[in-house]
Amino acid sequence: MKSPIIDFLKQLHHELSGLSEGEVATYIPELAKANPEWFGICVVTASGHVYEVGDTDIPFTIQSISKPFVYGLALEDNGLNDVIAKVGVEPSGDAFNSISLEPDTGRPLNPMINAGAIATAGLIQGGIASARKRRILSGFSTFAGRELSIDETVYQSESETGHRNRAIGHMLRNFDILTSDPDPTVELYFQQCSISVTCRDLGVMAATLANRGANPITGKQAVRGEYVANMLSVMSSCGMYDWAGEWIYKVGMPAKSGVAGGVIAVLPGQLGIGVFSPRLDSHGNSVRGIRVCEALSQRLDLHLFNRRGTRDGAVRLIFNGGKVSSRRVRSLEEVALLKEHGSRIVVVQLQGNLTFATTETAVHAVTEEFETLDYLVVDFGHVLSINDTAARLLFELTLSLEAEGKTVVFSHPDRVPLMGRVFRAKLGEKATDVYRTFEDNDPALEYCEDLLLVKKGFTPPVEHTFGLAEFELLDGFSKVELEIFSGSLVEMTYGKGEAIIRAGDEASELFMLSKGRVSVFVGSDASTRRRLATFSPGMIFGEMSLIDRSPRSATIEADSAVQCRILTLASFDQLGDKHPAIKIKLLENLSRGLSRKLRKANLELSVFE
Amino acid sequence: MKSPIIDFLKQLHHELSGLSEGEVATYIPELAKANPEWFGICVVTASGHVYEVGDTDIPFTIQSISKPFVYGLALEDNGLNDVIAKVGVEPSGDAFNSISLEPDTGRPLNPMINAGAIATAGLIQGGIASARKRRILSGFSTFAGRELSIDETVYQSESETGHRNRAIGHMLRNFDILTSDPDPTVELYFQQCSISVTCRDLGVMAATLANRGANPITGKQAVRGEYVANMLSVMSSCGMYDWAGEWIYKVGMPAKSGVAGGVIAVLPGQLGIGVFSPRLDSHGNSVRGIRVCEALSQRLDLHLFNRRGTRDGAVRLIFNGGKVSSRRVRSLEEVALLKEHGSRIVVVQLQGNLTFATTETAVHAVTEEFETLDYLVVDFGHVLSINDTAARLLFELTLSLEAEGKTVVFSHPDRVPLMGRVFRAKLGEKATDVYRTFEDNDPALEYCEDLLLVKKGFTPPVEHTFGLAEFELLDGFSKVELEIFSGSLVEMTYGKGEAIIRAGDEASELFMLSKGRVSVFVGSDASTRRRLATFSPGMIFGEMSLIDRSPRSATIEADSAVQCRILTLASFDQLGDKHPAIKIKLLENLSRGLSRKLRKANLELSVFE
Lengths: 609, 609
Known about the structure:
alpha+beta; Transcription Regulator spoIIAA
């Protein structure tokens, strides 16, 4: 099928390929050899989908686009303060090759001008030159998701003609911005500029920045996430040299260009753009590259600042325990209590990336519901990530609720390991007193229901073997009828963990649970296994297959030592011949049970649909 | 309940209230009167939640914070090109009161320096001075969500001492940037700076910018959404004067300060911040204001560029017609066909704000499923907004699917009126040939099911009055039994639209539908009314209340002229006495029907849960 996104990019490529303004860089012969008509566009989403048209596989040198990436590696190698001490972050308002050092300290104004980039290269750790080169190549390769290498011919030419940069190196040495022989660092700078990439590589590298430093295709972290904002900040304020204001105004994405004709632009959290077209304007930026970024920003509405507010933030759904209950099948008395008081249990289902702004909506919703809730289940099942702020916000919310005597329960805590770390860091061993975790909503709800039921005066029946008269299935049976019916039953016992029914088996009996508990499961392995129901004494199970004669659809296991009375299919069928009145009562009671389950399922569907 | 967000702000307020660096502005006596200890912080989310601590109700003058807002109004009054012709967008690298005009054109470098702000004020339309003043006051009032006014004393002082700004006015007149007498415009500029606001107002105004120009509390549009990115762009590149690089690096939010001690910062799509503290640093920025922004950015992780990718974008859920079906209750033959082929119907549920990046995930998911789908339902029910790009992307996707012979259906089109406009703009009258819309998923699914069934060879039965033998309820009945049973039934007819059962009524009968169609509805009015089921001839309805003797839970209406056979509760109860074998068969068939409905409901729950 035609992708509408590819179609759009093809159209744009076609439109702009007529543009023949600008000149290919000629300051070294290798760059002058570029075909001025080469033109590639590649858009890569932060989820790793790649859209590319035109010449996206032709290798060229990365040149100045290396600067923000080496800056990121330098931050990782030295930490923020040591980098800031050597290189500033203010735009220079000058061209790329201006020296722009602070008059007193000699600190280059920012890492995007050559002086700042050479100072930054000086911060790359590794000791000997070859190790520092490997550090850069390996970092860039993780960004691109493939092994990159240096174009040695370009590097030799850059090195042979790079007198101005060598002068800058010595100037930086003079100010102790570089603290040892500047030559190896200047060579390293020539090497970083000579790394060979394709337009597709640029797209992926940009998308890795959009994805907070994690390559969205390989999943590998190319630079520590905390430094990505710094890299994008210097691109934003200084990336397009003396044109930063107009760029942010018109395009609204941090960007960087290189003299070989490459351009990257990044929309944080969303996508990265790589463009390649060797003809440059007087600022040294690719003419078509700039136009592609402008057109993409405008036509795809990518401007960073053109954002609508999301009213619902991280809240996917809020529901209460009066409408949705756990898979524990409750007695009639319990059902009545939960129907009356179940709304005191509130489940807040969160989704997406939890940050301050998205989590605030959830915290606000809970504080709004504060008066009407006693039990809060926070469901992290649809959460993609959580940052420290969101975790602390939920921690504080939990403490506040706890202080008011409310119960807080987390479901799917495996999606947000940071939550546990924040609680343990703040409370140590006492963390587990403050909240409980359950692997999903079902046991979380069951836990809250159990607490609520006790609070509302429910006393669980003393554990005993249920007599026939206690079964709802036999409601309205006379003593004589009970005795007759009892003759059709077979007693069975099962050990804890034993399978009573297996999915796929032919159905040949209905089970009356006299003692112990059983649970119904679907899913063949641990990851897909899901509880459908848990039954207590006095309840029946396995009746549906008996009624519609279809194979067992789920597996039923004994949660504890279990006693059952079993009505076989044969006895069930014969019952009508000898004791029609008994069979009628039995069927009426069976239908009533099914009807109740169907009403419950429909109510839950109305919540989730 | 204590809000953890208020607690956090109180803590921050407490920490920073010890900070006594800086000096209150003294260039006019009114500003010098400010209590240097005043300190307020207000955070307002793009969804309109207000969090405020400290002195958030004390009035002060907005001063330079007026500049981006007047710039927005000027854009609205003149359009982008006419504004750009008079005022640039490049940072000056100079202090706020630098004149910074382009040497040849006299165009001020940007609208955040005084020269640019006066040129911008000159662009406010309205003719006479009072009308232009009203235009600004009314625009600002919509931003703040309350009637604002000018502090006349401050204005008088500003006017009396504003010689430098008057000089700038004449300089702008000299270059024809101002095209008439500059004095009224300079006065207008003094007036805009003298508008009286509170810290809370600043928070709301900032949140209005975060919400693309719509005040999140009143819902009113304060400036056309398309200009908000321009306003934020100039704040980002020039808002903090000669400090833009460091500000974006450390704080990462567009911001603006005023000499009365106010600061605003905006996180687009998420929140706005207002701070008030009169002590200023040497740049003229509020000392505590700056520190609050830094601390909020760092501790709440608000930096614009520190974003994680969202893997699932706009896709809330994808499911297929093999697991979830419409509320039309199908015959056994239809059920079997839908079970086998239903996965050819794919429902993509979208959510949130549809932009290029979020919608791309949905388009990608559909192209991935392309081979296995014949019918696509796009459900806009959870969508908050759609931009032009997203609408065009979905338009192109629809055309591509249509070209491949697939059927595309939209549900909840009322949430995305732009979709219809894009289709009509591109296709005119033919738009409705390309896609169908339905108010929700249920009729959309039914439409697709009907097409699929026909494609798979299903022939709907010829319309006729169903005989008893055709009812599944009477499966296995002999001729004699049918005749006997028929004696218990009463014939009834209903006109189209007539209510057959009303929610809340006592249940006294089971209905066998011989002819026509009926539908089950819950919800008392049009907005809450929802179809639960539609039944065709040969089916029964109303059986659940008969079984569990509970009142009717829904209303059932005749979709067409309807004929029913009715089994009353009395006949049902008596049937067992006289004809137990018939009653047993009836109950077995009833239970089978309930069992099937329960299995279907459980399957659907497993999809949505």
